Amino acid sequence: MNSSNNIRNFCIIAHIDHGKSTLADRLLQLTDTVSEREMQEQFLDGMELEREKGVTIKASAVRMVHEHVTGMTYELNLIDTPGHVDFSYEVSRALAACEGALLVVDASQGIEAQTLANLYLALDADLEIIPVLNKIDLPSARPDEVSDELADLLGGEVGDVLEVSAKTGDGIEAVLNAIVERLPAPSVEGLGPPRGLVFDSHYDSYKGVVSYVRMVSGRISASEKLRMLAGTLRFDPLEIGIFGPEMKPTGELEAGQVGYVATGLKSVNDCRVGDTLVLADDDTSEPLPGYLDVKPMVYAGFYPVDGEAYSLLKSALEKLQLNDAALLFQVEASQALGFGFRCGFLGLFHMEIIQERLEREYELDIIATAPSVEYEVELKNGSMTRVESPASLPDAGEISEIREPWMNIQVYSPEAYYGTIMDLVTSRRGVALEQQHSSGGRVVLSFRIPLSELIVDFYDRLKSRTRGYASLDYQFDGYQADDLLRLEILVNSQPVDALATIVHRDTAYHKGQKLISKLKELIPRQLFPVAIQASAGGKVISRANVKALRKDVLAKCYGGDITRKKKLLERQKKGRKRLKMVGNVEIPQQAFMAVLKIGE
Description:
Layout: E1 7-14, H1 20-30, H2 48-53, E2 60-67, E3 73-80, H3 88-95, E4 100-106, H4 113-124, E5 128-134, H5 143-154, E6 162-163, H6 172-182, E7 195-204, E8 208-217, E9 219-221, E10 226-228, E11 234-235, E12 239-243, E13 247-249, E14 252-254, E15 258-262, E16 276-279, E17 298-304, H7 310-322, E18 328-334, E19 338-345, H8 348-361, E20 366-368, E21 375-379, E22 384-387, E23 399-414, H9 418-427, E24 431-438, E25 442-450, H10 451-455, H11 458-465, E26 471-482, E27 484-491, E28 494-495, E29 501-504, H12 505-522, E30 530-536, E31 539-546, H13 562-582, H14 589-597
Parallel strand pairs: 1-3, 1-4, 4-5, 5-6
Antiparallel strand pairs: 2-3, 7-8, 7-16, 8-15, 9-14, 10-11, 10-16, 12-13, 12-15, 17-19, 17-20, 18-19, 21-22, 21-23, 23-25, 23-26, 24-25, 27-28, 27-29, 27-30, 30-31
Helix pairs in contact: 12-14
C-alpha cells in the first residue's frame, strides 16, 4: 500500500458547462481507470437526470492510479462536484475531503459567477488551486486573454495556467503531472485514533447506508466495530473499500485515503453527512470540523395525488434525504389536498430535481404547491414567529410587521445587456448597489433583491434577456420589513390554502387579477357555476365565474305550454343549487403551477 505521501485528494470546481465532467472523463481514461469499452460521456454523472439536464447534481468519488514521469506511482482521489448555484452546499462537502482543486474555466466564456463563488469556497477551505483553461480547441477561444484574467485572480504567473481541451484530450497528461507536483499530500495524524469524515452517503437496499469517508487518521478494517460520533448506534461494517469508480471492497482504509463503509444501518438519521466515523469503543475523539449546516431557502408542499400513497411518499423522501442533506421535510395537512409534506429546498432547481426524482425513481404521482420563502412575523403581543407556508400566516389583526429574506446578487454579463438586466431587477423590487467593469467588455452588477422575487423564474428570465450570456450568484443578506399581505384564492367560497401566496401590497391587485384569469381557464366546468375570487387584506379584489355545463333539459319538451318548460328549468336550477352546496371542485395540478406564472 502507498504511504500517504503518494496520495493526492482533489476536486474539480467550475461554472456550469465549462467542461468539468468531460475533463473527469479524460482523466479516468488516461489513467486506465475505466476501460474503453465501459467509457461513456459524463461517466461520473450516473443519474439519469444528470445526463439528461447535462449538470452534475451529486458529488461522486473515484480513485485513479497515475505513474509519474519519475517512475513513482500515485493514488489520485477525484471528488466530482456540481457547478449549479443550488448545489453549492454539495461543493462545500467535497472540499472538506480534499487538499487541492482544479479550477476549470472555459476559454471562450471566461470567468463566470459560479467560478468565483466556488473558488472562494475552495480558498476558505485552504485548498491549493491549479488553474486549468479548457476548450482551447474552440474557434471562439480567447486563451491569452482568459489566462491573464485567471493569473490576476489567483495572483500567480500566466505560465501556471494549464491549457487543455478535454474534448480532444490535449494537455491532459500535464494536468495529471501538475496534480502530483503542485498539490500537497494529505496531512495525516498517523498515530491518532482512527477518524474519518463522512462527506456523502447513499442508500443501498442490500448494504443499508453506504457512507463516503475521507480517513484523517489511523486505519479501520471490516473486522472492527464502528460508530458515528453524533449517533449512539454501533455497527459491524458489511464492507469497506474504494471507488474505482464502482465500489471495490478492500477490507480496510488508511489515513489520507478516500473510500466507503457499508454500515448496514437502515435509517438516515443514524448516519448524517458531516459526522465523524470512529471505533465503537473510542470515547475520547473530538468530532472533525464538518461543514456549514445547510439552510433551505425555498419551501413547497408535496402531496400524493392518491391519498393512499402517503406512506410511500414518506419513505421516498427519507431515502432521498439520505444522500441529499439539504432536503428537509415535515408533515403538513391541507384542506384542499389532504396529508402531505412541507419540504425545504436550496432553490427552485433543487426542488425541480427532487420532484422529478420522486416521480421517476419512486414512480409517485405528486402535486407540488407553489414555492414560498420563510418569513419572520412579529406579532402585536411582542412575540416573533417564522412562517414557511402562506396558509399558516396569522390573522392580519395580530401582526405588527412581516419581514422577508433579502439576497445580495451579482450578475456577470456583457455590457450590451446592462439596460435589460437593470429593468428586470427593478421590476422585481430590486435595488442596485454597485457596478464594476472588467476586461473584455464585461460588467459585474451587484443588487439587493427579495428572495421571493428571485426564486420563481428570475434565472430563466435573466438567461433569455441576455441570450444566455449572463451568469448569477447569490448570498443571503438578511431580513427586512415590508408591506406584505396574504393573497387568498376562494373557489366556490372555500379558501384553497394551497393556492395562497404572500405578496407586496402594491402588486396584490395586479397579481390577484392575473391569477383569477389564469384559474378561470384551468378549472374545469362543473354542472353548476363556480365563482373564483381573490382576496387580500380582508377585501375581495377580483372575481370570475366558471360557467356551468348546460344540460339541455328541454330536449324532450317540444311544443306545448311555456309553463312546462319553466317547470323543467326551475327543477334544473334547484338541482344546481343543491349541487353547489355540496359541490367539491376538482382543482388540476396546472392551477397550483399557475401561481408561478403570474409574474409574466
